Here is the input.
Amino acid sequence: MTEVVVADNITCMAGGRAVVSDVSLRLLAGESLALLGPSGSGKTVLLTTLGGLIPPDSGMIWVMGEPLEVTPERWRQIALVFQTYGLFPLLTAVENVEIALRAVGWQPDAARTAADEALDRLGLASFAHHLVVELSGGQEQRVAVARALALRPRVILADEPTTEQDHDFRDLVLDRLLEPTATGSTVLIATHDDEVAGRCDRILELQHGQLVTPAAGDH
Here is the structure.
């Protein structure tokens, strides 16, 4: 299978210590992966680095065979679902999705149509024109997922994307996140939830910033 993201010996420093230390991994086209590890193990830093938002202090990352650089062109292939959502609070839900599409070159009408469709698929059609400040935490989280999916990226990096969802919406979010693997996209989900991890093809485990032997049950 095609290697979509390759990380070789990446290390990320913060406060004088290695938050991510000498991590190497391969993400393949069409696969889903769960990234497990306790709070503080470096999961968020690793996702942010793989997404190109911060460069590693050492090591290399390639996306589709090309070195990852912090440029808008690379972002078009990678979408992140931030643990803090990263939404604009004084824009509506649909505007938050639409602005991300416009930023990568979508025309206004196409961006609005795609944004509406993405929100509808996450159960948010009736909240599309609500300001983010009017939404619940769970609704905000689903807007963030809708925004990532609307971009139709080759790689989705999702940081705890189900923490604010009840059982039914957790399953809906997972269904939507995993669907793009059927058309060759790669999905990496950082999670503490064993049931979420169980839906993924592979499980990786991060401990003290280092990738360790995959957790039990990895398949």
